[in-house]
Amino acid sequence: MRGQVPSASILVNNDHVEEITCHRLNSQAGEEYLIRWVVSFRGDSTDIPHSWHGVSELGNCGEKLQEYLDTLPQSASGRQERQNKKTSKHHRQDIKVYNGKLDVQNGMTVGIQSQNPDIPRVDILHIVTDAMQEEAAHTKTTAAAALVRKEILRRLSSIPGPTVSLVNNVDDSSPPLSFTFIDENILGEGVYAAHVDTITGCLKCKAHMGQGIGCEYSKLCDCLEYAAVNDTERMLPEERNRWEQIQRTGEGDTSGLPKKFPYYSSGPRVGCLVPFYLDRRHPIYECNSKCNCGPNCKTRVVQHGRQVRLELFKTANNRGWGIRAKDRLRKGQFIDTYRGEIITDAEASRREKGNNLKDSYLYSLDKFADTCGFSQEEMYVVDGQFYGNITRFINHSCEPNCRQYVVAYNRHDPKVYEIAFFATRDIAPDEELTFDYLDKDEGDEDDDDQVDPDDRKKGGMKPTRCRCGSEKCRKYLWL
Ligand SMILES: C[S@@+](CC[C@H](N)C(=O)[O-])C[C@H]1O[C@@H](n2cnc3c(N)ncnc32)[C@H](O)[C@@H]1O
Question: Which PANTHER family match (predicted)?
């Protein structure tokens, strides 16, 4: 007998596993995986550097299992990676491999040598051996892949709002388990969001204006007043005179003049961004918890969260995972907000360097830096690489169908606000959602188009070839 039938009641803890290095088929236990435990994990009674464990014991270490599956020789690179691992410094001559048994000691899940006399302790000189690799090469990983997939589906199903489905018609891989889905941003060290008491609302509006008639009909709405986008179409003649005089002289007070409402409040595009906001990068101020208008006010869209069904799918041309909507989206329709860790500018620079300058998950929250007199270093950045929501899987296109907009509920906090994605044209169901990673303001359109990738390299940036497939493709991401 080669191994024990594992008990599923104790699960291997992901944090205690340094690496999974091989797999084999046990006639009784099924697929088994060779765990190299973290060094600190070895004590007197648990001095067990490597041990075999069945898939039913690995429910809590899907992340490590996924890392191992990703190195398997489906490709030449996977094969090479495994060869390199074989000769890594960890595989010294005194390494022992056990048919491991899980136990709980002092609250810790530990691997110990099986007491079953039928199960031999296996001492071998080099692991992973050629024989072990050879066996692994002919052994399926179906159960492990199913475990990883089940875990990712569990996580996707716990995302609030309409369904987020998963499709991979390209290969056997699953989205990364090393990524954690979050519903709210995480504030990093040194990051401060203004206290909720600093929020002010539109107190002159009437309660429950949202029942068919909303703040858009009030010339007194403080939230719209703050946005200060004057709506010339709705101005009465005397208001128009006043407005024209303010424009002529550069002096005067625009308060009380009708303001442009960000969303359609009726008709087939109700809730969609109006063209004025869609075409410009003007911040959107939504009503908030301190406002008098009530929860149904038509200015509350982003704060109600995602309302569309999305699908996470594997792209067929090496762009990793992508996102598409399962429903038809209208031009100006809100899709979802970007989520992540809000970190300081200094921390973002540190992460960029440590991450080989792969900056595609970082969003600067610097929209109000100039107007509020802050330096770039004082502003914050959202990092969605390790903690975030489904929007961190949206790919880049040089001819995108979505765009990101600044949305604020607290007009007194210029450093923490929402980044919200809206459709910039009607989008058919199952069409991939994309946005331009170069978040250009109106008027900037031609600024960077001619940047030479070599210049970018010299500046320390690593250009990534763009595979968006558009005729307007700029050839590189972030150029
Ligand atoms: C924010 S992530 C998008 C999700 C990513 N596809 C994934 O699977 O995690 C950005 C990364 O996706 C890839 N990507 C996105 N758009 C791309 C494009 N147009 N061409 C090539 N790679 C792209 C690049 O690797 C980029 O660094």
Answer: HISTONE-LYSINE N-METHYLTRANSFERASE SET-23, HISTONE-LYSINE N-METHYLTRANSFERASE SUV39H
